[in-house]
Design brief:
Elements lengths: L1 H21 L27 E2 L4 E4 L2 E6 L49 E3 L4 E4 L2 E6 L14 E3 L2 E2 H7 L16 E5 L3 E3 L9 E6 L4 E4 L7 E23 L2 E5 L7 E9 L5 E22 L9 H16 L10 H19 L15 E2 L1 H12 L12 E6 L5 E6 L5 H4 L4 E9 L2 E9 L6 E9 L8 H18 L12 E9 L10 E6 L5 E2 L4 H12 L6 E3 L2 H5 L13 E3 H9 L4 H16 L1
Antiparallel strand pairs: 1-2, 2-3, 4-5, 5-6, 7-8, 9-12, 10-11, 11-16, 12-16, 13-14, 13-15, 13-16, 17-25, 18-19, 20-21, 21-22, 22-23, 23-24, 26-27
Helix pairs in contact: 4-8, 4-11, 8-11, 10-11
Length: 602
């Protein structure tokens, strides 16, 4: 009897482990992000017919009533079912019955007629010989070569966007604001060139900064409102053009200029405001603003048509001889921080906020960091780097030298018990944290361990590693025995989590959690931030041998930390990754953010 019970226990354990392994899903390997392709030439503004869900030809949003396909032929008669075979004797398979004779195929239906699509002499769509009431093309719909080209309804780009533009007459310029005056804050005209005009309206600060038109809109009408907006830092408010209590703009960060546009119904007597609106706390630029009275058109164009015309107009304006000014280093850095926030959402880090590339002000949770670790593990560029014990970096420049880097992760307090694959420490105001991937003994699976805010004062420098070992030990009990009760195990930190990366995949969406403590509590992230910094930098900089140059901006913005590099120092991208992961170089985290941000903007 005892032998029978022992056999049952062994089978339960084996089945439990197999079930745990099978339940994990695999995540395909993620490759590096491709470079941004060049923008193609603008297409024609004509409306092309398409087949709608009801089978008719549609033009734009209108059903023409013309059938697109011939009717289907009738189905053939089904063949008779064959007779069932006799049941076999119990315990033995019965003899299969013979298949019934297949029924004859039904006759094919007549082929539908191939539709004919033509354009009449006066410019209307003709489908299957039936002339519709819809124009096939706009006059001179091809990409314009001059502001004097006809755009729509006999109006030129100059008539529409310069003579009829109520947002400004001469555009932003170095001399002043044209027909606008200051309404709030300290708006300035920036000479920084993005991909638009050499001068842009600049709104930087923690309060609204806006201009207001000196003359109100005299006419009640519908107006097309559009502009180019680049928001490099966002906390609150809106950035764009505000008319009749409607803001056409953005309420988020962007890492490039984006077009914002809408059609707004406006009563006479309204003002036009430009800049940051509604108790704003943001940094950004606004360019190429237009407010167009749509009553100049015989037939009001669609919003898509207006946006296409606007893009053509902006392209023509940019084609003029203009001053070329580089992006500022702050613009580059802010663009990267915006990308970090977007990348975090892509990974599934829904409870995390990022405002810098170092970790001074960022917050996250243990579960979000576990997702980040698993996601970063899919980047083969990190193999052998983030788990190394030491590395020698060759620094080029006027102060050429070598630097020997020592790890803060693969230390004896941890490696005496577990083999380290990679990870990152985080230390801020005495709060010691650790995010690490460990090898599970006698298994090809890996164990993710995150410890946030290990308890103890600064004299207990190594207790984060002791706590990480406690978390790993508890998790492995569950790994070996899925029925193990860990409810009475409490580790010495504010929050923690441990989960498995199965050998056959890197799923960061559905965590295979073995142990957790306050895993959704949002806390200071400190230098664990740099895992995301590196992932985002690799997305932008493909070549590990590319040389990275430190600048005065990087040194001066190293928060309250000392800088371990000099302006003008040059290292390879790969050595920069070692500098971030081993000694946790804050300067390098800023340098990579700035360099990668430049790649994004260009």
């Amino acid at each position: 009897m005892k032998r029978f019970l022992s056999l049952i226990l062994v089978l339960s354990f084996v089945l439990g482990v197999c079930f745990s392994a099978v339940s994990c899903t695999a995540e395909p390997e993620r490759g590096p992000r491709g470079e941004k392709g060049e923008t193609g030439e603008a297409g024609a503004d004509g409306l092309t017919p398409f087949i709608g869900e009801n089978g008719n030809w549609w033009i734009g949003d209108t059903d023409t009533g013309v059938k697109a396909r011939g009717e289907d032929g009738k189905d053939g008669v089904d063949g008779k079912d064959g007779a069932d075979g006799k049941d076999g004797v119990d315990g033995k398979d019965g003899v299969d019955g013979k298949d019934g004779v297949d029924g004859k195929d039904g006759k094919d239906g007549k082929d539908g007629k191939t539709p004919t699509i033509e354009i009449s002499k006066d410019g209307y769509w003709v489908i299957n010989g039936q002339k519709t009431s819809y124009k096939a093309t706009y006059t001179n719909a091809a990409a314009p070569t001059s502001l004097d080209d006809t755009a729509l309804d006999g109006l030129t780009y100059k008539k529409i966007f310069i003579e009829n533009n109520l947002a400004y007459t001469d555009g932003f310029n170095a001399k002043g604001y044209g027909d606008f005056k200051k309404a709030a804050g300290e708006n300035t005209i920036s000479s920084t060139k993005f991909y638009s005009a050499p001068y842009s309206l600049k709104a930087f600060g923690s309060s609204s900064q806006q201009l207001v038109s000196t003359n109100t809109l005299e006419k009640s009408s519908e107006y097309f409102v559009a502009c180019k907006v680049y928001c490099s830092r966002y906390v609150a408010g809106e950035l764009g053009i505000h008319v009749n209590n409607v803001t056409v703009g953005v309420s988020r960060s962007t890492y490039d200029f984006v077009t914002v546009a809408d059609v707004v119904s406006v009563k006479s007597g309204q003002n036009i405001y430009m800049g940051s609106i509604k108790s704003a706390n943001l940094d950004g630029y606004l360019d190429d603003p237009v407010v167009i009275d749509l009553s100049v058109f015989t037939t009001k164009p669609s919003l898509d048509t207006l946006v296409a015309l606007y893009e053509n107009y902006v392209a023509l304006e940019r084609s003029k001889s203009r001053e070329e000014v580089e992006f500022s280093e702050k613009d580059m850095y802010n663009a990267f921080i915006t990308y970090m926030g977007e990348k975090a959402k892509e990974i599934g880090m829904v409870n995390s906020t990022f405002t810098d590339s170092v970790g001074a002000n960022n917050k996250s949770t243990a579960s979000d960091i576990a997702r980040l670790l698993i996601y970063a593990h899919s980047y083969k560029e990190l193999d052998g780097i983030w788990g190394a014990e030491s590395h020698t970096v060759k620094v080029n420049g006027s102060k050429a030298r070598t630097k020997t880097l020592k790890t803060l992760v693969a230390v004896p307090e941890l490696t005496d018990s577990y083999a380290v694959v990679g990870g990152k420490t985080g230390t801020l105001s005495g709060a010691n944290s650790l995010a690490v991937i460990l090898k599970i003994p006698d298994s090809s699976d890996l164990l993710v361990v995150v410890v946030l805010c290990a308890k103890g004062d600064n004299s207990q420098k190594n207790n984060r590693y002791e706590v990480a070992c406690q978390v790993a030990d508890a998790a492995l009990k569950k790994y070996k025995n899925p029925n193990a009760d860990l409810s009475k195990i409490d580790v010495g930190c504010d929050s923690a989590i441990a989960c498995v990366i199965p050998a056959e995949g890197d799923s960061h969406t559905d965590l295979n959690v073995l142990y957790a403590k306050n895993e959704h509590k949002k806390q200071s992230l400190a230098s664990i931030t740099k895992i995301l910094t590196v992932v985002c930098a690799i997305d932008c900089i493909k070549d590990l041998s590319k040389e990275i140059t430190y600048s005065k901006f990087d040194i001066n913005n190293c928060f309250w930390y000392y800088s371990d590099f000099y302006a003008g120092d040059r290292v390879t991208f790969k050595d920069a990754l070692y500098a971030i992961f081993l000694p946790s170089s804050n300067t390098t985290a800023i340098t990579l953010a700035r360099v990668a941000g430049k790649v994004m903007l260009e």
